[in-house]
Amino acid sequence: MYKLSKRRILKILIGLFLAISLFSLIDINNDQHLYMNNDIKLSKLASTDPNNPILLNNSVLRTEYNFTYGSNYYYKTYLMSKSNYHLIYLSNTDGMDDFDLVLYSDSDYSDLIESSDSYGNIDWIVCRPTDSTTYYPRVHAFGSGDAIIESKSAIQGKFEFNYSTCSTLYENGDIFQFSFTGGVSYTINLSVPIGTNLDLYCYKLSKYGELPRNFREFDHSSSLNISGEDESIIISPEDSGIYAIIVMRKTGTSSGNLIVYPSVRVLYDDISLYGLFDNPDTYYNFSSDIEQSYDMYQLFWVSYINKFNDMDIYLYLDSDHTIFEGTSESEEMVDWLVYFSSSSAPVYPVAYTSGGPNIGYFSWESACYLEIGESHSEYLNINDSADIVQVYLTPRVSYTITLTVPTSCDFDLYVFKCDYSSSVKHDEHISESPDIGKDETITFRPDDWDNYTIVVIRKSGNGTSKIKITSNSMGVPGFEISSSLIGIMGIFIILTNFIKKSPSFLTKIKSLR
User: Fold this and answer.
1) 54-262 and 368-471 share one CATH topology?
2) Contacting residues for 503 by C-beta, under 8 A, at least 6 apart
3) Overall pTM > 0.70
């Protein structure tokens, strides 16, 4: 019997290992292409079998390689939720390729409901199913090459927020949905970087069974077809409803920024809104967030980066601007107005400029409660130029409110009260030293039991303000032992002690009678 040496056994094992490794590499190269990008999944060849379609998961890119001329490739989508918008798009990696996107409602691929057959490098279909539904896309290749296919549900958009679009290298389509109110004008802005061409589309599909639509069947669009050129749509829908906003990247690799805002721009609590108030004699309309707090003070302010002309804030209690409430006070680079709300209903501030451009921030914030003896701190800068707290005070008690000011800053201090649903000040007290870094102090006695507000306005500098309120009274709140009463009591005690020590003193007093 032939006996293998240890050296020969080792050589055989090494040979087997190399052979297995070689066949593994060949298998990988035949079946897959490797891309060093986290957003691109390793994709095997697409399915040409309608009985075995490839699943398109929500917001997961698929890169397909070597589509073959004349072939059909079959897919099925994730379960698309009812009444929401969804996007299916197909983009080729070579502008010379031509692939069409066809959509079916059934797994037999017999009930065709929409198709997209552009001659460009991208096709898409927008869906809004009545019931949660799975659709069945088919790709027909009129050329050979590689492509990217993706299906995704819409992001629920919020006004005044910046959304990054097409934010990864191979992500060529995005979809958002916004709730628009009939009769209100909306501006949809898409910022496009240099070297990239992004287009903007708006769709309105009924949630009651309207069929999907393709790239041609939009309601509004902005497609300048110029690299680096921003896109914008202004619409005024007649009826309220949910609208889809589509962003498509035609060329380039950079992402864009999408923002949608109504003609009545919404102010959210303690979120500053940047604005360019550039038209003279113009009213810029705003609305506070509807979720206001009841029985709370509200502060509206605008601070200026550059102020070339005067600006004012007008406050109205109705969207038609017929119930006027008050006008702001101007303090150099800040205009501000306080309102004491009696309900959760929104109010409607208006910024009026007599010239421009006035560049700055507009904000609304609710007061936070402060207890006697407590302190409250807030960092103030150009985009957070004011602070407001609320405290319940008792009459005939002396209170001291102290504002600690950083050494490089100039902050002013205001204390007052307003009636319900009013901006008119009562029992107002002000401390506004012109010196940089000087603390502000107010001592006063309220004239009634009531909610008072304390407002800090930043005039210059960036730093943390600190408000503290203390009571100077002795005894039970509301029954203060005043300084004059303390003096009388002191004199009485002194006389009593003196009489006890000198009884003859009282006899002499009586003899004088």
Assistant:
1) yes
2) none
3) no
The CA R_g of the chain, rounded to the nearest whole Å, is 36
Where in 405-498 does DSSP place strands (E)?
410-418, 425-431, 440-444, 450-460, 463-471
Domain 368-471: top CATH class = mainly beta
- Give the separation between CA 92 and CA 140, rounded to whole angstroms: 12
Partnered with residue 220 across adjacent β-strands are 202
* Residue 234 pLDDT greater than 80, yes or no: yes
**Domain residue extents for the chain:** 54-262, 368-471
Which of 198, 191, 78, 98 minimizes the C-alpha distance to 147?
Answer: 98
Q: CB under 8 Å to 502, separation ≥6 — which residues?
A: none
User: Which is higher by pLDDT, 317 or 263?
Assistant: 317
| Residue 110: CB atoms within 10 Å | 10
Contact 73, 138 (CB under 8 A): yes
Task: Specify the pLDDT at position 468.
Answer: 96
Closest CA to 203 of 224, 176, 230: 176
**Residue 447 DSSP SS3:** coil
* Topology of domain 54-262, CATH: Jelly Rolls (2.60.120)
Q: What is the DSSP letter of 498?
A: H
Q: Taking a C-beta distance cutoff of 8 angstroms, is the pair 276, 261 a contact?
A: no
Give the pLDDT confidence of 370-425 residue by residue, as tens digits.
999 999 999 999 889 999 999 999 998 999 999 999 999 999 999 999 998 888 99
Distance CA 305, CA 20 (A): 69
Omega of the bond leading into 357 within 30 degrees of 0 (cis): yes
Report which residue type is found at 32: Q
Long-range contacts of 472-481 (CB under 8 A, 24+ apart): 472/397, 472/398, 472/399, 472/400, 472/443, 473/397, 473/398, 477/394, 477/397, 478/394, 478/395, 478/396, 478/397, 479/396, 480/396, 480/397, 480/398
- 241 pLDDT band, cuts 50/70/90, is very high
Contact between 182 and 236 (Cβ < 8 Å):
no
- Amino acid type, 297: Y
Placement of tokens 């910024």 in the chain: 351
Distance CA 385, CA 493 (A): 53
Q: If DSSP codes are grouped into helix, strand and coil, which group holds residue 194? A: coil
